[in-house]
Amino acid sequence: MSGMASESLLQIEEIEGRGRAIVSSKPLRGGDIVLRDSPILLYSGSPLNGQQPLFSTSIYCDNCFKKLESASAASSCPSCFQNRFCSQHCLSASIASSHTPWVCQALSRLRDCPSLVLHQPLERQIQARFLIAAYNLALVSPPNFQILLSLQGYGEDKDAAAAQFLHSLISSLCPPPPIDGFSFSFEITSALLSKDKLNAFGIMEPMEFNKENCGQRSVRAYGIYPKASLFNHDCLPNACRFDYVDTAPDRNTDVIIRMIHDVPQGREICLSYFPVNWNYSNRKKRLLEEYGFTCECDRCKVEANWSDNEDNEGDDDDEAMEEDRDESMVEEATSEYEADFPHAYFFLRYMCNRENCWGTLAPLPSSDNNQSSILLECNVCGNMKNDEEFGVDAD
């Protein structure tokens, strides 16, 4: 796997019952960086009318997605005047890659048809952005487009209506120009939407803690990261993702996968596809609806018994109650090392205790094998914590 911090750290294997998996090819330490991956495709998470995402007050560059100090300091696309860039370099790079004349024209036509597009749910508007970016990728980088098509995900019947609407919309308003060796078709549109659903990573707005958003974050943009998408899910992951979109001096849209704790050789390396504080019913619903599988990790096996014992108490539609239980479940489980919850240690040490954050902590990379204590970084709010603060031994 090219792009690894050290290509010898990980390898792809088939695991019975789980299919393709990424496993450690040698013992790994907490804090080890096992992957730095660059996106082959980026697209905005903003509505097509140009409004800022929910819970966001940021203005950002439409090429590198760094935060802009002000709209007046930005360079605008000379054709549509909608897309903004942090520098002439980003403007020039975008016109040659992600904001080509066809993309500019396609987005402009979509904005000019509010009855067809802007009245659609935000999810549909973002899907339209993705499809335009994906078809543009076929024009500017056929090899990367083939990589996109090779990722997991196939058109599903339950998504057929969305695929049909979006394909007809793009066909009528902004069909892509002829592409050598590639045919613009409903089947490809449907397959692309499935690739996006299963593989896209959100580039999040920085965490803002105030009464209005209670720690919620918006998605600034989405990216397709072909190597990072190979990691399977676990509800108690041993690795987590970091990004530094506003602070990295270069390659700021890269994702970095870092080990949360030590693992032996041959262990599967997994991420969590959502915050680790979610309760069993919410995790099960999300994984089945969005990713098409039921998780059978060790944590789920324990919490499934809790769910069975509750005899389906409460209303499944009461989402607010379920969200409250996400927090209470963690508080109850980590109050002591309960015999029926052997994974409480994970929450005590590796979940951020900042109010409304629920990020995952991982040690900073270090070559010092004799540290008496370890500094851990939250992958959501960025806070640093010394493991001694948790009252848990580092060993």
UniProtKB/TrEMBL annotation:
CDD domains xref list: SET_SMYD
SET domain ranges (all copies): 8-274
Chain positions covered by the region annotation Disordered: 308-331
PROSITE patterns: SET
Source organism superkingdom: Eukaryota
Pfam families: SET
Protein name: SET domain-containing protein
Lineage: Eukaryota, Viridiplantae, Streptophyta, Embryophyta, Tracheophyta
